[in-house]
Amino acid sequence: MERASGADxxxxxxxxxxxADWSRxxxxxxxxxxxxLGFHDRQRARAMNIRDRQKDGRTENKTTMNGNEMITEELCxxxxxxxxxxxxxxxxxxxxxxVRNNGVFSAVGNKCSHYGAPLSKGVxxxxxxxxxxxxxxxxxxxxDIEEFPGLDSLPCFTxxxxxxxxxxxxxxxxxxxxxxxxxxxxxxxxDRSAVVMVGAxxxxxxxxxxxxxxxxxxxxxxxxxxxHIPYDRTKLSKAMNAKAVEIYLRPIEFYKEHDLEVxxxxxxxxxxxxxxxxxxxxxxxxxxxxxxxxxxxxxxELTCPGATLQNVFYLRSPEDANAISEAAAGKNVVIxxxxxxxxxRRHFALQQCKSPSTxxxxxxxxxxxx
Length: 370
Ligand SMILES: Cc1cc2nc3c(=O)[nH]c(=O)nc-3n(C[C@H](O)[C@H](O)[C@H](O)COP(=O)(O)OP(=O)(O)OC[C@H]3O[C@@H](n4cnc5c(N)ncnc54)[C@H](O)[C@@H]3O)c2cc1C
Ligand code: FES
Description:
Elements lengths: L13 H12 L5 H4 L4 H14 L7 E6 L2 E10 L7 E7 L2 E8 L2 E6 L13 E3 L2 E3 L6 E3 L5 E3 L8 E7 L2 E7 H5 L17 E5 L3 H12 L5 E5 L28 H6 L2 E4 L4 E5 L4 E4 L4 E3 L2 E4 L18 E4 L2 H11 L4 E4 L3 H13 L8 E5 L5
Parallel strand pairs: 12-13, 12-18, 13-14, 19-21, 20-21
Antiparallel strand pairs: 1-2, 2-11, 3-4, 4-5, 5-10, 6-7, 7-8, 8-9, 10-11, 15-16, 16-17
The structure holds flavin-adenine dinucleotide and FE2/S2 (inorganic) cluster.
């Protein structure tokens, strides 16, 4: 059983501390963090950028400060791009998305924080770019994720326009970070409220993270009847032999750092709204101030004769996926259901099985929308 309890872990994350320290040391930062820099830091940054600029237009300039390499690079001329346009640029081997909107340039990472799609191939509407693969949305001014799937925001870079040249000003360290976790509040001992989430899938996880991002300091408990902390269920039909730990949405340390409790193998059996209590199968209960029910859906079970035979599987958990993968290797397989999940399952089956179409092993694929 895996359990991440936030009880003994308070304060900011190591990552947050590292970024904060870094922001004090560097003169030029991403637009988002730049706001935190003082006047003298910004003056110093401006002076350094001017000093760094070299003779021939599109030149890359580097300065080393506190061991971190600063980079100023011209991306294009301001007249090269029109309002509402976005373009991909390579800077030091990293893909950057440059956007021009209402005459203002902004730059963010070009790789979607979900599965890495190139955002330059997506759709830009106002200050928002929509990912071409699964539709996540990011604010191009600050890189924040505004619609899911995906959990993380994009790195955001300073853009300067001088003498008609559009330049990105950043550091090597910043360029290499493809994702950014929004800053989050911690639990406060004085806050006695508790948000309980029945279910620990992506819906509950995003809700928990959003609460912390928006400053909620009470207790947050995610409860799942499964034995795993939140994982990416969508991968189950694509990599059926993947171990659960390989598809966790966040590492276990993340929950400790942000005071998010995850109770595993706890099945909710009833809710008493008068007393604000969730009761579990093992007889225990949990008091809540606010309750979120995010229990997802489940497969419609087969009712035909033979449905309970040994080699009939349902695909919902990592254990189901691993069992199907093992049982199906070199066998003939029938997949019941023919929509998206079955397509992913079929792709895997083509690689693993003798045939994905005739009967020996039978699996029914969960249709999440039924
Ligand atoms: C094999 C497979 C492939 C998929 N592929 C895709 C895809 O390619 N693209 C896509 O967009 N979507 C896909 N989906 C759908 C996607 O996984 C779901 O839309 C998503 O997981 C829903 O998230 P959720 O948090 O609402 O619920 P879920 O991820 O279903 O999580 C529900 C949570 O509730 C818990 N729970 C349920 N009942 C109780 C209870 N009584 N007590 C305690 N805990 C309980 C569960 O343990 C779980 O933690 C796929 C689904 C499957 C099964
Ligand atoms: S890769 Fe962008 S939303 Fe999935």
